[in-house]
Design goal:
Largest sheet: 7 strands, mixed
Shape: globular
Organism: Leucobacter rhizosphaerae
CATH class of the largest domain: Alpha Beta
Protein name: tRNA (Adenine-N1)-methyltransferase
Keywords: Methyltransferase, S-adenosyl-L-methionine, Transferase, tRNA processing
InterPro entries: SAM-dependent_MTases_sf, TRM61_C, tRNA_MeTrfase_Gcd14
Helix content: 25-40%
Radius of gyration: 23 Å
Number of helices: 9
Number of domains: 2
Order of helices and strands: EEEEEEHHEHEHEHEHEHEEEEHH
């Protein structure tokens, strides 16, 4: 029988390794294993054992030897490592995109940020680190299971659910006005299926000059969001981009691109809130083949046609239509348990702060 997990305090971001810390162990062939240090625990491979007690108290980035004499490099994972290995209920925002979101949206210490949806909490962790203890993050999620997974992952990373993080379960259009006063938010980050539906409510919450940034997966979502931002008259001309990162193999004279890369994950579209009553000047461009009419737009995006989409009623925007793989309720409940157990292994307090909202009108 394994020893009970004792109170081991919050995981430390630096310094000597301790119980509750996540540790990356890299073996002699470069194989990577990530473990959580617990009293009485052991790391087993087919070639030996490393007791967790042998790792406790040693400096970060040390080399340890297993029972058969093989050496392992022990490193505390970075935030980017953590989010790639934590339990997931929904697809995460990859670190390459999270970094761009923080930069393009200019998320600063002390900012008041709105995020929807929360998913598995990967982007939430990046935003919480960027705003610091003086900022506030208001996250909105339509599914209670995703919110529970995100809370568990956040508690596992920092030792507790951050006090400056509010997670509200419900539809953003309905619950944001009741959560944040008009004109009180610095940044809004939308990672959802149909962000164009939330352009007006995001504009109401943002201060003049505040940034709205949307993360979407497909070109049809990108086009639809851009058109809605322009038609609203509430934002500057939107800017769109895609981030691709290609690693390189560098060893002696063998210098070449890696054979594999994480290519397309999503598009980012960014715009800034105009001051009330401001009319944005039209861009002066030469006539070109890119000119289009409402009829042209309707053939590409039916709900933006001359009839306003009455014929379609907004149908067709389901997760499966844009390539998302939805998980069953059974799998999601399993992921919730994994996230909570993950947090408990790290000695984390999974209790939500008093100001976490009760479930609303989510799915």
């Amino acid at each position: 029988m394994s020893e009970p997990i004792i109170d081991q305090g919050a995981p430390s971001p630096s310094g000597p390794l301790g119980y509750g810390d996540r540790v990356k162990l890299t073996g002699p062939k470069g194989r990577l294993n990530t473990i959580t240090l617990v009293p009485g625990g052991e790391f087993h491979s087919h070639r030996g054992v490393i007791p967790h007690a042998d790792l406790v108290g040693i400096p970060d980035a040390s080399v340890v030897v297993n029972s058969s004499g093989e050496e392992y490099l022990a490193l505390r994972p970075l935030l980017s490592d953590f989010v790639m290995s934590m339990p997931r209920g929904a697809a995460i925002v990859y670190p390459k995109d999270a970094a761009q979101i923080l930069s393009l949206a200019d998320v600063f210490p002390g900012a008041r940020v709105v995020e929807a949806g929360v998913g598995s909490g990967a982007l939430s962790l990046h935003l919480l680190r960027a705003i610091g203890p003086d900022g506030e993050l208001f996250s909105f999620e339509r599914r209670e299971e995703f919110a529970d997974i995100a809370r568990g992952n956040a508690a596992a990373f920092s030792g507790r659910v951050p006090e400056n993080w509010t997670v509200t379960v419900g539809d953003l259009q309905e619950v944001l006005p009741a959560t944040c006063e008009a004109g009180s938010v610095d940044r809004v980050v939308l990672d959802m299926l149909a962000p164009w539906e939330c352009v007006d409510v995001a504009a109401e919450a943002l201060r003049p000059g505040g940034v709205l940034i949307c993360y979407v997966a497909t070109v049809t979502q990108l086009s639809r969001t851009a058109e809605q931002l322009q038609r609203s008259g509430l934002f500057t001309h939107p800017q769109s981009s895609e981030t691709m990162v290609r690693g390189w193999h560098v060893e002696g004279l063998a210098v070449r691109p890696d054979h594999r890369m994480v290519a397309h994950t999503g598009f980012l579209i960014t715009a800034r809130r105009l001051a009330p009553g401001t009319v944005l000047p039209s861009l002066k461009r030469r006539a070109s083949k890119s000119e289009f009419s409402d009829e042209d737009l309707a053939s590409w995006l039916p709900d933006l046609g001359p009839d306003g989409g009455a014929a379609t009623g907004g149908a067709g925007w389901a997760p499966e239509d844009v390539g998302e793989r939805s998980k069953s309720d059974k799998i999601l409940r399993k992921k919730v348990r994994e996230a909570q157990r993950f947090a408990e292994e790290r000695g984390a307090d999974t209790a939500a702060p008093d100001d976490v909202a009760e479930p609303g009108s989510g799915d």
